[in-house]
């Protein structure tokens, strides 16, 4: 049920640009709950929303870095790597975090 609610919020954010920032911040709170299933689903949402609205990245950038250890599913990891690569100029730690993925 929790994953489905995250997917619905993502769909709304993608269809209604005027509420996308508010929904992204709401999804960020799910991401920070330290519940792996929510964090993984939220990471997929970040990928989709930030692909369409890249200017919203600063609103969630710190959380993405700070709570990345809760990501443990393949598709979510791919989304995190995409975010790190795409926004690497805005994330000082990006090369080091990407190196962690290579080592693991």
How does this structure look, described?
- It is found in: Endomembrane system.
- Keywords: Membrane, Protein transport, Transport.
- One of its GO terms (biological process) is vesicle-mediated transport.
- The protein is an all-alpha fold and 104 residues long.
- The protein has six helices and no strands.
- The protein has one domain (2-103).
Task: Name the descriptors.
single chain, mainly alpha, ARM-type_fold, protein transport, Clathrin/coatomer adaptor adaptin-like N-terminal domain-containing protein
Tell the overall outline.
globular
User: Could you give the count of β-strands?
Assistant: 0
Order of helices and strands: HHHHHH
- Going by helix content, strand content and strand pairing, the class is mainly alpha
The DSSP helix count reads 6
How many independent structural domains?
1
Mean pLDDT: 91
Radius of gyration: 13 Å
Helix residue percentage? over 70%
User: Major beta sheet, specifics?
Assistant: none
Distance between the termini: 31 Å
Q: Low-confidence spans: pLDDT under 50, at least 5 residues?
A: none
- How large a portion of the residues is in β-strands, by DSSP E? under 5%
Write a brief structural summary.
With 104 residues, the protein is mostly helical. It has helices at 2-15, 17-31, 36-52, 61-66, 74-86, 94-103. The chain has one domain.
List the helices and strands and how they pair.
Layout: H1 2-15, H2 17-31, H3 36-52, H4 61-66, H5 74-86, H6 94-103
């Amino acid at each position: 049920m929790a994953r489905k609610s995250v997917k619905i919020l993502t769909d709304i954010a993608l269809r209604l640009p005027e509420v996308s920032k508010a929904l992204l911040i709401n999804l960020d709170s799910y991401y920070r709950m330290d519940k792996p299933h929510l964090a993984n689903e939220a990471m997929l949402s970040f990928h989709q929303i930030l692909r369409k609205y890249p200017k919203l990245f600063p609103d969630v950038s710190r959380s993405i870095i700070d709570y990345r250890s809760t990501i443990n599913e393949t598709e979510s990891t791919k989304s995190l790597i995409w975010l790190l690569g795409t926004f690497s100029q805005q994330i000082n730690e990006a090369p080091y975090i990407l190196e962690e993925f290579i080592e693991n």
